[in-house]
Write the structure tokens for this entry.
Amino acid sequence: MKYLPLFMGLLAFWSTAGYSQETGRTIIGDWTFHPNYTLARNAANYPGEKIEPPKGRFQRFKTQGAPILFYEQHPTERITNFVETETLPTGPFSVEMWLLNHVNLPVGALISVRGKSEPEEAAWLLGNYGDEVLWHVRTDGGTASLTKKIGRGWKKYWGHLVGTYDGRSTKLYLNGELLAESGEASGSLQLPPNPQIEVAGYFGEERYMKIANLVKASRLYNYALEPGEINTRFKELQQRVESGQLFPETFHFNAGPYLHYATQNSMNILWETDRMARAEITYGTTLPLEYKLTIDESAYIQEITLEGLSPGTPYYYEITAIAADGSRTSSGTLTFSTTVADRSAFSFCIIGDTESRPHVNHRLGELMWEERPNFIMHLGDVTDGGQEDHKFEWNYEYFTGITPVASRIPFYPVPGNGESDLYWYNRYHRLPDPEAYYSFRYGNADFFMLNSNARAELQKGGKQYEWLKSGLAQSKAKWKIVAHHHCPVSSDENDFGDTWRGESSRRSDPRFDDLIDLYESVGVDVVFYGHVHAYERTWPLKDGRIDQQDGVVYIKSGGGGGHLEDFTPTPSWFSNKVQRGNHFCKVDIFDGTFSFRMYDLEGRLRDFMELKK
């Protein structure tokens, strides 16, 4: 594992600055932010190269001064003292923030220069909180404060926020457009006696969110950017996002390694790099690694199936990507285990609707890792809207949050409406044909994974319905489990009528009626699904009533990171347990025992069920 700090101590601004002795136009600081997500203890390796965000120059002992209250909020994270005081601009300057805001609760971040020793007014401050942006400049000739309400950004969630000051005029830009300007400030910046630069995050509504989740890049210039320069920079950042590049000018993994669809004798591994690369894959049951495979054809997305493996066996592996210029980046040594023998005990975790919160995805990944399941089932909406033109939702969100656990535990997903076009879903998965739906055997259980986006195929006579009917009829497994994204049964507040406004709710989707009849007629034990961002477990159901002997249990697990939803104001006859909150589930199976648990975001047990055969 290597680290490439973009801004380090006293030397960083020289290494990152665009400096010209002829013009004196300097980029004082150029910072990239990306979450440093790893697992704990011996599993704490980040795959490949990365750029570190700015760090204060005093790490062992430091004082930060009083915090800035921003829109009446206290900061939840602060980074200070990462620029030498002598380099801070006193005349014309510009500052930018590149923001990705994909949560529905108010959060914010700012970059500013203010006094360290006294809680005085900032010399300048650029920030965003909720749907408002602010640009504040204080000079010896006056003070300019510009605020503006904003709507959705580029691709709904991205904002290139730029503040400029040229000595006479203060201007605020968003995504290349001038939002506001003022002539109230003029002359030199009024720096305090002990100035310090600070980046602060305000995430009181999103407990696990960090600055690097909202701010993806920032720059400080010692000159006022012209509109054309701002647009050029905006296009540069847009191109970075379109390609899924996480770090500029750094050879790195921007997806994976990603384990999915294991068997007793094989493991599928996928990864992506920011540039075309070939690869070497080494693996084995001991270190040093004894087997080596090569992929000689260069590509961005690469995948391989390791074959000839032994059942229920731990393996080590490492992916090394090699670019055209010979540079290399390595995943470091990672681990996985193949599928267990048919009569062995096994466990799996369930997560759904990871969507827009990599900070929640990662937290749940940490908790699932501590359980050491054999595999993880994903119930769809891997992304919120990761269609063909929203590739960034895979690189910046899903793989950012899930890679630490997904590089060690294989995933078995189903597609949700967030990836209903299957464009990137199919490119990032190697699943049995036709990929959108498939089945697998694990231990003494058969799993049937459906694509519920294709609703017509789930009706009688539809190809998925007939495929499932045939598969269930042929199944000899003790446990039969079905998974898909959409809800056949749900007590949520408004998917089947707004129950807070008196509208009646059928509390089920009639398009699943044929499937429900099939589940009940052929002995399906449990059906897992997501879509609604909450948790619900039903009683065993059959023929429209509770049947604890022959009924099917329906479990909705949609709390992986999407915007949380709520339930009807009155109880549903079929519902055994509901919970509004982020969560994951775990199942342990051995012979005739099916043990189920649900845990919240803090790792607390919130539900338990046991089935016996």
